[in-house]
Every structure is written in structure tokens, then in C-alpha cells.
Write a structure and sequence with these properties.
Layout: H1 3-10, E1 15-17, E2 24-26, H2 28-33, H3 49-59, H4 64-71, H5 77-83, H6 87-96, H7 101-121, H8 124-132, H9 150-164
Antiparallel strand pairs: 1-2
Helix pairs in contact: 1-7, 3-7, 7-8, 7-9
InterPro entries: Antitox_Xre, Xre-like_HTH, Xre/MbcA/ParS-like_toxin-bd
Protein name: DUF2384 domain-containing protein
Pfam families: Xre-like-HTH, Xre_MbcA_ParS_C
């Protein structure tokens, strides 16, 4: 499973590619969490999973995706407030039922880095600790604190790649 699939899974947005016909679906998480999404709107033929995910980002993820990552223990509400969207905004988005495209993009960015860390460190617990521990390779900041910007996320992903390849961080 690649990192983008793992990130989508962390948000309850399971992406799979059907064998043979290249049909892409965003499954259980969106069906459960998105009140206006039906199985018929999830089918797109001849599009790779990443393209379909981009469509869902642009449409806005269901607010339930935030709760899914919180319920999984990957982030707490304070961390969501810090790197994805403020609590007051989250409360307002709950009324609407969906995140904006920008909020969805930020949420996926954080989930993508968490998924990469879990892959590099071999499990969620080690990744959880690493993401919250200050590191000299990031000027003494915890990796999670940098995920509020795309550039910060890139720095963290670069460091994870170095660690995965055994290059001194």
C-alpha cells in the first residue's frame, strides 16, 4: 500500500482499485461520513486513485474524516487545531457537513506524513513519539509542528526519506 492510500485510510477514505477494469472508488469512510455521497457518485472509470482523490479534495472531505483520524489516536483535537483547522472552524464545518478544499488538503497532508512516519518506523506508536519529539534535524522543532505549512511538511517528508534510506539525519 502506498503512502497516499495509507493516508486516505487514516482519514476513513479507503481507496481501492478494482481488478481488471481500473475502476476507482472511495469507499466506506465517505459513504459513512458524507451524507450526500452515494455509491453511484463514487465510481469513476479509467482514472487512477490519485486523480479521484484530487476530486474529493476539491469537493471537500466529509467532516467525519477529522473525527476518524482523532478516533484512531493519530491526532488529538489540540493538534488538529494547530495543524489543520481551528476548533471553532471545525464546529462550523460540522454544521455544513464538509471541509473546504483547503482544509481537506491540509488534513490529507498531515495524514500523508503520519502514514509515511508509520511506514518508516514500522508502527503507529513509534511514529507517534517521533512526530512529537523535537529533533535537531528540524532546528529543534517536533515534526508535527511543521505540518501546518506545505514547506514544513516537505521538510519532514525529506527527513523521513533520509531516515528510511539510512542517511544520517
Amino acid at each position: 500500500m502506498n503512502t497516499i492510500h495509507k493516508a486516505a485510510e487514516l482519514l476513513g477514505l479507503n481507496i481501492s482499485q478494482a481488478m481488471g477494469d481500473q475502476e476507482t472508488r472511495i469507499l466506506e469512510g465517505l459513504v459513512r461520513n458524507g451524507p450526500e455521497i452515494t455509491s453511484s457518485t463514487l465510481r469513476v472509470t479509467h482514472l487512477p486513485p490519485r486523480v479521484r482523490l484530487l476530486d474529493k479534495i476539491r469537493e471537500g472531505f466529509p467532516v467525519g474524516a477529522v473525527q476518524h483520524i482523532v478516533d484512531s489516536g493519530r491526532l488529538n483535537l489540540s493538534e488538529v487545531d494547530q495543524v489543520v483547522l481551528p476548533r471553532k472552524t471545525l464546529a462550523n464545518r460540522r454544521k455544513v457537513g464538509a471541509l473546504t478544499a483547503d482544509q481537506s488538503d491540509r488534513l490529507l497532508r498531515v495524514a500523508r506524513v503520519i502514514a509515511a512516519a508509520e511506514e518508516v518506523f514500522g508502527n503507529a506508536e513509534k511514529a507517534h513519539v517521533w512526530l512529537r519529539r523535537p529533533t535537531t534535524a528540524l532546528d529543534g522543532e517536533p515534526p508535527l509542528d511543521l505540518l501546518d505549512t506545505e514547506e514544513g511538511a516537505r521538510e519532514v517528508e525529506t527527513l523521513l526519506t533520509r531516515i528510511a534510506h539510512g542517511i544520517a539525519a
